[in-house]
Amino acid sequence: MSELYILIDQLQDVFLNQFTDSRKRIFFLYIFSAFVISFIWLKFFKSYKYNEIVNKIFDRKVYFSLSAFEDYFLAIINQLIMVIISPYLLTQLILATFLFNLFHKLSFSPHLYSGLFSNLTIAILFSSIFFILDDFARFYVHRLLHKISFFWVFHKVHHSARTLNPLTVYRTHPVEGIIFSIRGALVQGLLISIFVFLFGSQVDLITIYSANIFAFIFNIAGSNLRHTNIEIKYYSFLEKIFISPYQHQIHHSSLPEHHDKNYGVVFSIWDNIFGTLILSKKVKEVRYGLFKDSFPEKLSFFYLYFYPFYESFKIMKNIKYKLNTPLFKYINFAKIIRTFTVSFIFFLFISPLIINKSFSNEINIYSHRQPFLINPFLDLFTKETGIKTNIVYAKKGLAERLQAEGRNTPADVILTVDISRLHVYADKNLLASVSSQILTKNIPVHLRSIDNTWFGLSKRNRVIAASVDRVKKETVKTYEDLINSKYKGKICSRPGSHVYNRALLSSIIIAHGKEDAEEWAKQLVNNLARRPQGNDRSQLKAIYQGECDLAIINHYYFGKLKYSDIEQQRKWMESVYLIFPNQEKGDRGVHVNISGGGVVKYSKNKDLAIKLLEFLSERKAQTLYSEINFEFPVNPNVKPGEKLSSWKKFREDNVNISKIAEFSNEAQVIIDKVGW
Amino acid sequence: MKYSLKLWGVLGIVLTLIISIPIISIIIIALTPNFNIWGHLISTVLPVYTSNTLLLMLGNIICVCLIGIPTAWLVSCYSFFGRNFFSWALILPLAVPAYIIAFVYTDILEYSGAFQVILRNLFNWNNAQDYWFPNIRSIGGAVFVMSFVLYPYVYLLCRSSFQHNSARFYEVSRTLGYNLWSTFFKLSLPLTRPALVIGCSLVMMETLADFGTVDFFSINTLTLAIFNVWLGMGNASGAAQISLVILIFVFTLLYFEKSARNRREYHIIDRNNILIQRNILKGYKSFIAFTICFIPLLIGFIIPSIILFYYSLLTFDISFDISFYKLIINSFSLSLIASLITVIAAIVIASGQRLYGNKFIIFTRISLLGYAFPGAVLALGIIIPLALIDNYIDKFFISYFNISTGLILSGSIFALLFAYLIRFIAIGYGAIESGYTSINKNIDMASISLGAGKIFTIKKIHIPLLKSSILIASIIVFVDTMKELPATLILRPFNFDTLATNVYQLASDELLEQSSLSALTIVLVGIVPLIFLTKKISDNKYFS
């Protein structure tokens, strides 16, 4: 399964690349610009109505015709063939190196003009010469394809199209594809070697790539329109310089008097010189395709690919006999082409959806934490161990999914951002008990479960944020201070039922008992400045904005904003300072929550899963936690990153973290009661 | 009647049974609680939560009707500046997910948002105490954002109904001396009732199922209560219980409505394709009509799109790479398949119902409930039976062939598609059934008495007549699948992201800017089929 999936993925990339690479003809912007141009043309030059425009541009007869399906079919097959043979084709670099060496041998003096012109001049010179030379080469090779009967039988495939659409450009015989790729290599190789020879190191990759700027302009100016049913004509004087889309459509005409005319790609000057130019105004109507009898009527995969070989063979031998193909008479090739094309597209884009992407030698993770936050860790893990990881992220429902999947679950590891969710998994008996010396050594006893089913991986403190201007230092020292009536209407918080607040309330229940905790929550709600809302980030924002003076937050939100890339957010944090509460001697210390993980009970890769957890508890990953996400490492031997270690030292509430989870239910009851 | 003809009806019933499975499994979950939550809930949060939910629902329905009906009426019966444009453009807000519009308007209208900052600078106010400004994170705010993206349901169905009602009605009414206004109240509105009810019930269920907006606004509705009970108290069955109670409430409401119009049937007597003669509005009247149609479009579509566009320009270089194309492909193909499956299922069920009577109406009703469940709860109802079946198949294969098949259905795209089918069958069925109500039953009888079989009748008569309903159904399902979030998150396979999950991941960490490219793309990709719909509408002589 894994190999198949990777193959499909790569194929998908090959085909997607056609649309996402600006050097390809059907780059999505070029297609888009073709739409825009044809819209403008039809609306303002031809005064079509809107629905007529839509009907014309998205003509069903054009895009769903058999000819079009042949195009799609050939485009697909040719891509696959090119993927296979392209490594063996001559590239411009090999050629350039060869020619460069040749020039040396001929003992011209190299780098003659090095330093004579500025880099910009050379870039412009290179681009324009390249563009003109390239266009001429295209014109000339195209002319040869028509004039030499041996080539023509291959090029005929392209001209057998009865309707034109942008993908018709890929309706070519692979032999033609090879001819054109050699032509490209020749022109580029020649020019690069000459320029390097003359100007030396002034010709760099940027110069060479900048040559594409003209091609980009040509393409964005609607190069795709030449293979469509939109008959755009230019003024005659312009058509003597540039080929208009309609002129190329004339090139595709089936009438003998239009044969072998308008070879040009960009410029029509070459046609003018060689006497093969026809202007648009001279042609009323065009029917595309080949002249009768010059190609079998019934086109098929066989004919399109092999008939040219047969014909060229015939030409070479100069013999005449009829190809007798009784076998193919009874096969409906039209149907095969349609079916193949549709099913290939389906295969390419739908099958990745169907294939289950969980592989045996990889770690599958159910995560409650956003992928972009853990990906740095997983990437590092993959880099160091070579083990790939796959992920499903959701905030809720994963425990139920895991439970339902039972023994057959693909999941190996669970990652969560708080203790109560870890506890849910443990409660449902979904986690395996792990005996790992590394884990027990790295993680303190109070931050992992007694039976070693789950492990804390980073620490997050529930702290109090205060306004620099409006809250004097040392006035608020504990969570209990928050319920002082002088802070009425001054405190902000996210909803009480959020896991972080629930865990905080649990810790207060543990410290003071249920009644006092309820009283505390009640008073706190009384003191709130606004209805609980938003996440911790927006509480900090509210302090900056003056909506409230104090807020209960997780400490790393402050870190994230304070060291943010966005200047505005850094500015918010200038007006806020953090209070780590309950630090007095004998007091319990600041409330700690954990992000953590566990190994799935029915995991098929327990060894790998344990490896991942161990990795996350080791120095590298632990430091990463503090550097990326401003969380404190659980591993007592690892110091937090630079920014965090500059924060004031503080004491933590060392109550066993699983106790917090046990009181979660009662905390929720209180929260509902007081309406936090 | 030949036996084979019954196949169609049987197929419909089997389908409804399959679709009912998750809902039945939710009922089973609800019946097996680990402890009773109701005592605690009733004594604490339930009264507030219920009243909030009712307020939100009522507010949404009123606003949606206030926006949807007048615009539909104007577009159907009057000719004014921009009418042709509005007749299709008014559908566009459908492409904007409620949670995204909530993010966007919060970003503008909250205390630190651009709007209030401008106000403060303009009037030299210093802080919140100096002036009063409505809080966007409130019930009113939720009604505001939700009704401006939900009104197209009512608009679409009402417009189709206004335009399908034979023009003869209007002519008769006008010759009897009624002007267009009284025709509207006395004739059109009552005739629109079935469509209106379907539209409103869709809005109602959408409101009940919405989690993103109420969570973001921290409004304590019953939907939030469901998750507090589930996640906070670890009591999934309590959560299922609450959602069932909500459902029963909606169910009863719809039942009363249905029985109130039980004896009346709304068929069109003749279909002579007479177009309504539109009254031409000029001068200030045209301006007023223009404004009435423009405001919903502006708030529901134009402003959010512009803001998303602006943000996505800012973050384009971060968010745009090849993986982004894959997001689009995933979302697009998923939605396409889902809408195909759903609409076919809806046609089978609705036509079976039409031709074979109401014997299994109860299952049809149950199967339509999926829309009102919060996606996450529905996901629970899906994953449990699917995994059960999977494990059973696995056991079977191990014991007889010694091959482990693993999880075939759950944990693959199948579970997702199944979820979409269940969630959106109500939309598909609603649209097609309302199409059916405007096909006279005499046609069926005529066709059958002329010797055409029932399947032939469906194929050759119903489906062509239902074409516009089918189109509307498939497009709404497509767009809704594109936006669906909670079930997608829970049920998706590994490493599988859609545009919606991408938006959610980023936006849930309040990174609106980074998520805006995906959000904008959801909107844009949603527009494509809507434009297609317009093209069809302009081809169709019943519309335009």
Greatest interface by residues involved: A-B, 69 and 68 residues
The pLDDT mean of chain B sits at 79
Biggest sheet strand order of chain B reads: 1-2
The structure class of chain B reads mainly alpha
Number of helical runs of chain A?
Answer: 31
| Strand and helix order of chain B | HHHEHHHHHHHHHEHHHHHHHHHHHH
Number of strands of chain A: 9
Low-confidence stretches of chain A: 319-329
The overall pLDDT of chain A, averaged over residues, is 81
Structural class of chain A: alpha/beta
Q: How many β strands of chain B by DSSP?
A: 2
* Ends apart, CA distance between termini of chain A: 50 Å
Q: Provide the CATH top-level class of chain B.
A: Mainly Alpha
Describe the model:
The complex is a heterodimer of chains A (676) and B (544). Chain A is α/β, with parallel strands linked by helices. Chain A has three domains: 305 residues, no CATH class; 127 residues, D-Maltodextrin-Binding Protein, domain 2 (3-Layer(aba) Sandwich); 131 residues, 3-Layer(aba) Sandwich (D-Maltodextrin-Binding Protein, domain 2), CATH 3.40.190. Chain A is built from 31 helices and nine strands. In chain A, strands 1, 2, 3, 4, 5, 6, 7, 8 and 9 form a nine-stranded mixed β-sheet that branches. In chain A, helix 7 runs antiparallel to helix 9, helix 22 packs across helix 23 and helix 22 packs across helix 31. Chain A is elongated. Chain A starts with a helix and ends with a helix. About 2% of the residues of chain A have low confidence. Chain B contains 24 helices and two strands. Chain B is mostly helical. Chain B has a single domain, classed as MetI-like fold (Orthogonal Bundle). Helices cover 76% and strands 1% of the residues of chain B. In chain B, helix 3 runs antiparallel to helix 4, helix 3 crosses helix 11 and helix 15 crosses helix 24. The C terminus of chain B is likely disordered. In chain B, strands 1-2 form a two-stranded parallel sheet. At the A-B interface, helix 1, helix 3, helix 17, helix 18 and strand 2 of A face helix 11, helix 15, helix 17, helix 22 and helix 23 of B.
